[in-house]
Design brief:
mainly alpha, 65 residues
């Protein structure tokens, strides 16, 4: 491996490590304490609801009208 290749590998490794540190810091600062409360009864109702009553549109608009 020539010196240019070693330098490139070292720089790529450094960039990857820095990105992992940054992602971990962002997760620790903003996402770590985020919790989503799930009501088991409401979830069960969603799972067993007939397919015709489930709404597939997320934009709030009716498609095909």
């Amino acid at each position: 491996m020539n010196p240019t290749d070693r330098r490139l590998v070292r720089e790529i490794t450094l960039v990857i490590v820095l990105k992992l540190i940054l992602i971990t810091a962002l997760w620790w600062a903003f996402i770590r304490d985020a919790k989503v409360a799930v009501d088991p009864g409401a979830m069960a109702a969603q799972v067993v609801a007939p397919a015709s009553t489930k709404q597939h549109s997320t934009s709030g608009e009716s498609h095909g009208q």
